[in-house]
Specification:
By secondary structure, the protein is of the alpha/beta class. It is built from six helices and eleven strands. Helix 3 packs parallel to helix 4 and helix 5 runs parallel beside helix 6.
Length: 197
């Protein structure tokens, strides 16, 4: 159990894993998370479930190496197993057909945004995924987002791709040129949520 089946490097510090977890794969919903311990001596860390495949009995998760435990996790390889994996936890995102939905996230939050954007589109909404990254080298899951959403807008802090600036500045600019969304789903800090309200 909890065996890593695939490992994909998204950026120098960010990795996507597909992990055996049949019970979680059958029950998860967009917005749920898991708690893992990569090794028996590690601390527990929460991670968002990015996807699940009930037939394969697997879930996918994205991990960014920013602390001791996340660095231990991204060093794991295919065939290794996580010491502990618990979930699905948390309240799933509230998905309904409202019309136009703007989904916003920056950095590794883009991984959390992917299943939510997909679910909103499957519910019949027109979905714009607005994502931020420091530079092109830190952009993650672009291809998957383009399959999940009707429109994908990127902002990069250094201007190397898409809008030049952060995702909040991009949102301010975008709102002046597009119809007002019926709903905003934001994954990020309070200032980002405050502006989208």
């Amino acid at each position: 159990m909890n065996r890593i089946l695939t490992k994909r490097q998204l950026t120098p510090e960010t990795v996507l894993f597909e992990v055996e977890a049949p019970r979680i794969a059958r029950r998860w919903k967009p917005g749920n998370f898991i708690i893992i311990r990569p090794t028996p001596d590690s601390e527990r860390i929460p991670l968002t479930i990015v996807g699940g495949n009930a037939e394969r009995g697997t879930i996918t998760m994205v991990v960014q190496a920013i602390g001791k435990t996340t660095r231990i996790t991204v060093a794991l390889n295919e065939g290794d197993s996580l010491a502990d994996l618990v979930g699905p936890l948390g309240e799933a995102a509230s998905i309904e057909n409202v019309g136009r939905v703007l989904c916003i996230a920056g950095g590794v939050g883009v991984a959390e945004l992917l299943p939510v954007a997909r679910a909103f589109r499957e519910a019949g909404n027109f979905v714009t995924a607005m994502c931020g990254a420091r530079s092109t080298a830190q952009m993650i899951l672009d291809e998957e987002l383009r399959q999940a959403a009707d429109e994908v807008v990127w902002a990069t802090d250094d201007g190397s791709y898409g809008f030049h600036g952060n995702v909040v500045q991009c949102m301010r600019d975008w709102i002046t040129r597009n119809p007002k969304p019926d709903l905003c789903h934001v994954i990020g800090p309070i200032p980002m949520m405050r502006f989208s309200a």
